[in-house]
Amino acid sequence: MEWLVAKDFRFGVSIRYFKSREALVDTAKRAEDLGFDILCVPDHLGAAAPFPTLTAAAMVTERIRLSMYVLNAAFYKPALLSRDIGALDLLSDERLEVGLGTGYVREEFEAAELPYPSAGARVDYLEHMTGYLKEHHPRVPIMVAGSGDRVMTLAAQHADIVALTGARVRDVDDPLAERIDFVRAAAGDRFETLELNLVITAVPRKGETVPNLSLTRRNAPDLSDEQLLAMHSVLSGSPREMAEKLSSHREKYGITHFTVQDNHIDNFAKVMAELR
């Protein structure tokens, strides 16, 4: 897939909620007009449903690619998910990418009246799902997201896009660098064809330079504001300063694919403009 080998920046925007069809259409069109490369939807109960939301977006856009960030693989049977993927890829004129993860929120499994498997069993199922989809949709790029050794090995050896959470798996000075080194070792010769993704968890509002850190703090409640602002996934400063941080991520780590939440769409568009 030539678009992966090029290693140009790609930018995604994630839609978690929308209040109306009009609101969704407006966000999808604005994302495309502002130059975002990917429109994605997460997979959580109580939030937007990925397939109908992406289908609606496909109907009102022409260029922006569509993805899930990420599907809870354990919620689906491979053949049924494959059917939906095939339909959405057709309806979007082959703009689909598929994001997969193990699923981790026990309460959502319980609400869906599904058993909550062990961590190992969820990784086994993710591997099974990834293999099935690659066999039946070889042209559709697959992203695998996670942080643990087994998921990162699966991503390195079978995915097209590796989504890094930046989670501290081992006690090291730079957990992101450690995870990328792990992926590089697991991928071997195919590492150069992989695209590395990072979710940006905080971006300043338009006209401001300091972001709201509440989302970032949920996963790191013991860190100070100064420590949170220094995290790889947090942007602050002017659009140029934020662009410089993303450029340094590409130079130091090889990360070229960044995803932000849709409430940051306008200010992050200024960052994208600095990088293109």
UniProtKB/TrEMBL annotation:
Entry keywords, A to Z: Flavoprotein, FMN, Monooxygenase, Oxidoreductase
SUPFAM superfamilies xref list: Bacterial luciferase-like (SSF51679)
A GO term for molecular function: oxidoreductase activity, acting on paired donors, with incorporation or reduction of molecular oxygen
Record-annotated Luciferase-like domain positions: 20-192
KW Oxidoreductase (keyword) present: yes
PANTHER family referenced in this protein's UniProt entry, alphabetically: ALKANESULFONATE MONOOXYGENASE-RELATED (PTHR30011), C2H2 FINGER DOMAIN TRANSCRIPTION FACTOR (EUROFUNG)-RELATED (PTHR30011:SF16)
Protein's name in the database: F420-dependent oxidoreductase
Organism: Mycobacterium asiaticum
